[in-house]
Design goal:
With 431 residues, the protein is of the alpha+beta class. It is 55% helix and 19% strand. A hairpin with a 2-residue loop joins strand 1 and strand 2.
Length: 431
């Protein structure tokens, strides 16, 4: 598998390559303009010499070469030396400056340079030429060229160094917050996910951090809903499962009884099993509804609140077996329009809490209208009577009452625990 280059290294190499290309390009451009400047100076000197020659020697001097100010001067191209004519296969056809080197290529400077200038003054044409070589060049020209070359090289290297340092500092300034963002994202968990993200210096990185946090928060919220559903389901389904198992055992025992009596008991047992199965189904649907964020409303129905309360007490009586507990129930007939399953869950949790955590004393269940109050002796904090499902049941009760708008209160004093709930629903007078 091909190893991929890191983003940091890729950006670094790209910037450095761009810097090197710019430095080399501008260095070559500077050298080009240096040569053009030297050529312009030479052309200007030759033009000035040609003008002076025409003004000082106006009459033709025949077909001979003349020498003026260090230049060979001729009025015809044929008068030029054969070496020059060979180098310039075609004579300059337009007035201006021409230059050619001998024995030169890309990496080697020419051994000999030929400079030719064609001067046109009316009908009179003049050719000026000069032959130059390293041996005949003045030492000053060589020193100036070397100084210019060294200066150009020094400037190019300095610019390249400054660009390299600038790019590295820039990348470090950018890569620091990016690295911090990666480390922060790797450190996120359920404990620190609710904390606001730190400042990463740049708005784009801060926005990215917010997106990461919101995405992980959504995932964490979904996981919390699933865990809550599993905990609540395992807690709430204990009673219907226990009812089903007890009644299945009862069915097995009824096999040895007489036929008429067995049929009557079997019908009651099957009815209790069926009711427990429906109860489990409704519990599951209600817990799923509790975990959803949508504003879906559960369907309500007319409930005889006192009858529901008495039925739940009967189902929970097995929790008081072998306990020295006195149970006092006070109810009044009341019909309320409420969602049935949440009502049963809330009341069952409060009754189960009182039955499980009372080993002796009096439990009082008082219902009047849509208000239910359950009181029981308070167990000591270090007592082994504490049950793992107790806190979970109260948590589920609190969530349901809050979402349904019911008024729920839970009070504990050193000797008594008191829970009360007011169901917010439409009340009907008993018939």
């Amino acid at each position: 598998m091909r190893q991929r280059i890191s983003l940091k290294l890729f950006v670094t190499l790209a910037f450095l390559l761009l810097a090197v290309v710019l430095v080399i390009g501008y260095s070559l451009l500077s050298a080009h303009y240096y040569h053009k400047g030297m050529d312009s100076i030479t052309a200007s000197n030759m033009e000035e010499a040609a003008r002076s020659y025409v003004n000082s020697v106006p009459a033709p001097k025949g077909q001979e070469l003349d020498r003026f100010r260090g230049y060979l001067v001729a009025r015809s191209w044929d008068q030029m030396p054969l070496e020059l004519q060979t180098t310039f296969a075609v004579p300059p056809s337009e007035p201006g400056f021409s230059i050619k080197g001998k024995n030169s290529h890309w990496f080697k400077p020419p051994d000999v340079m030929y400079f030719v200038f064609r001067y046109q003054d009316g009908n009179e044409t003049l050719f000026l030429c000069r032959r130059g070589s390293r041996a005949t060049a003045p030492p000053l020209i060589g020193r100036n060229a070397a100084d210019s070359r060294n200066m150009l090289l020094a400037i190019s290297v300095s610019i390249a160094g400054v660009l390299a340092v600038t790019i590295l500092l820039l990348l470090r300034r950018v890569s620091g917050p990016v690295t911090a963002l990666g480390q922060w994202a790797r450190s996120l968990d359920s404990n620190n996910l609710s904390q606001p993200p730190p400042d990463f210096s740049y708005p784009e990185l801060n926005e990215l951090a917010g997106l990461i946090r919101s995405s992980l928060s959504s995932v964490q919220e979904s996981l919390d809903h699933e865990h809550s559903f599993l905990r609540h389901a395992s807690h709430e389904l204990r009673t219907p499962i226990a009812i089903i198992r007890n009644n299945v055992e009862l069915l097995h025992k009824l096999e040895n009884t007489r036929e008429p009596e067995r049929t009557l008991h079997q019908a009651k047992v099957i009815e209790r099993i069926d009711r427990a199965g429906l109860n489990m189904q409704h519990l599951t649907e209600t817990l799923l509804w509790l975990g959803r964020n949508e504003g879906e409303v559960l369907a309500g129905k007319q409930l005889q609140l006192d009858s529901v309360l008495l039925q739940l007490v009967e189902e929970m009586m097995y929790l008081l077996s072998k306990k020295e507990v006195e149970l006092k129930i006070e109810t009044t007939p009341c019909t309320v329009f409420l969602p049935e399953v949440p009502t049963r869950i809330v009341l069952a949790n409060l009754i189960r809490n009182a039955f499980q955590h009372t080993w002796e004393g009096r439990i009082t269940i008082h219902q009047q209208g849509n208000r239910v109050v359950i009181s029981n002796p308070q167990a000591p904090a270090d007592s082994e009577q504490q049950d793992l499902g107790f806190g979970l049941g109260l948590q589920l009760t609190s969530q349901l009452t809050k979402k349904l708008g019911w008024i729920y209160a839970d009070e504990s004093v050193p000797s008594t625990h008191r829970a009360s709930i007011i169901f917010a629903g439409e009340q009907r007078a008993p018939l």
